[in-house]
Amino acid sequence: MFPFLIVVLFSLSWKISDSTQPAEEFLHCLSLRFHNSSSISELVYTQHNSSYSSVLKSSAQNFRLSTPSTPTPLVIITPLHASHIQATVHCCKKHGLQLRIRSGGHDFEGLSYTTTYEVPFVVIDLLNLRSVRINVEKGTAWFESGAKVGELYYEIAKRSRTLAFPAGIGHTVGVGGHLSGGGFGLLFRKYGLAADNVIDARLIDVKERILDRKSMGEDLFWAIRGGGGGSFGIVLAWKLKLVAVPAIVTVFTVSKTLEQNATKLVHRWQYIAHKLPKEIHMSIGISRVKSNENEKMTIQASFRAVFLGSTDELLPLMEEKFPQLGIVKEDCFEMGWAESNLYSTQFPIGVPLETLLNRNRKSILSKLFFKAKSDYVKQPIPETTFEGLWTKFYKEEAQSAIMVFVAYGGKMDEILETETPFPHRAGNLYSISYMVDWEEEENKNPEKFMSWIRRIHNYMTPYVSKSPREVYVNFRDLDIGTNEINDKENSHEQAKIWGIKYFKNNFDRLVNGKTMIDPENFFRHEQSVPPLPCLLKKGANSNSLGSL
């Protein structure tokens, strides 16, 4: 079998030059460890394979990180079985290649499929590992990390209209990466994050072992539920606790411009939204639009909500809590919970549920050139600050910019910030997401767009969380700091600059866990959790996965 595998693998890479000798050595190593030769040509893609480019770009969601100058992997592996991943980990270690793991390709800085380091690397793309198994009677689900959020929701909805899972709204997001950073969505005020509802997992560690919750221990299980992807191993599959929802939910979107009192409504929303019942998810989208009256540019605030109940239940509640918004029956639409996720990503009402299965359809923050940032707000922002903020949206580069405010409170106030690595719990009124995107022809000068969002972010500094200024790890932002590629002695101090912003005091526990499970820092990238060299010098035992 082995000679045949070698022939197949080298036929894939026969054009590789001497400068890519590591690829040849890596492929030879794989040929000795892959146990099934029948589909090898469909699983391994070198830079000279005719399908390499299409596979690489298939789930590269941020086109800013998919240009001719973007570093690309020596090889892409699309495994069908855990053994293919184990072999890839082994051969990357043996030949000194970095490894990136891609679930859905939605890492905002592209760290699942590219690098800012000038080093050879390999990508494991989990696109073939996407099975979903639902147990309605037990209210649980097992799914593989390559599954998309939309595929998970579709499989749940097919079997039950009263079960759901509290993940995000982007249907093309890979669930594996989403869970690794926490994962918030329409149900998080009722049930917490996606990661809060994970009850088991199967992970391949640096020693190529397959571990479940029991064998990995509670510290590693804690770390993978919100500690960010690419630091601790490769999660093959997750077991989820499904949650109860009514068969019918109610949604609305009400948009107000500055001329319609938008500023005062946004200001008032800050005092109300986080105190609403857990059954309401409420957000505001801020963008620049043309005024209906005179075609001049103005600012629009779109107030959106998803309520776990009927219109008749929602209307009196909104009249009591937020009468200024003026919600009426005609603003409201009833639908199933799965459909509400499509509505929340601005799909038209009535699109078929199968839309959730379309892995290539463009949606929010997919298949765009963009840059994003995030913040958390703990005190209401003054009206005058909003008025100053709106003026910045009239700049040319802000044509497609948007800010999204998402109300916190509810269940998030009840979960300790140490429960998982995701620390942004009680005390937050809402989160802010900043996004700016641009067209391909404008990508000749992306810096003007990047500069705009950085100026906005700087303007907001006095009004958001401080010491640290908190950031959501799934809204990856390399502006806040990166690791040096080979600086082992100072890696912890460098990483702490960005680490405390993502994880607050949980960062140190993540570092201790990394030191125990991956002391040589094999699983690493620009913002991966590093091991702590001083602990290693004191004799840390990497075989120990117990309490730290």
UniProtKB/TrEMBL annotation:
Which family, according to the similarity comment? Belongs to the oxygen-dependent FAD-linked oxidoreductase family.
Q: Which Gene3D superfamilies match?
A: 3.30.465.10, 3.40.462.20, Uridine Diphospho-n-acetylenolpyruvylglucosamine Reductase, domain 2 (3.30.43.10)
SUPFAM superfamilies recorded for this chain?
Answer: FAD-binding/transporter-associated domain-like
InterPro entries reported in the protein's UniProt record: BBE, FAD-bd_PCMH, FAD-bd_PCMH-like_sf, FAD-bd_PCMH_sub1, FAD-bd_PCMH_sub2, Oxid_FAD_bind_N
The record's listing under Pfam families reads: BBE (PF08031), FAD_binding_4 (PF01565)
- Domain FAD-binding PCMH-type per the UniProt entry, residue ranges: 69-245
Question: What is the native source organism of this protein?
Answer: Gossypium arboreum (Tree cotton)
Domain of life of the native organism: Eukaryota
Recite the UniProt keywords alphabetically. FAD, Flavoprotein, Glycoprotein, Nucleotide-binding, Oxidoreductase, Signal
Signal peptide span per the entry?
Answer: 1-19
The entry's protein name is FAD-binding PCMH-type domain-containing protein
Which cofactor is essential here? FAD
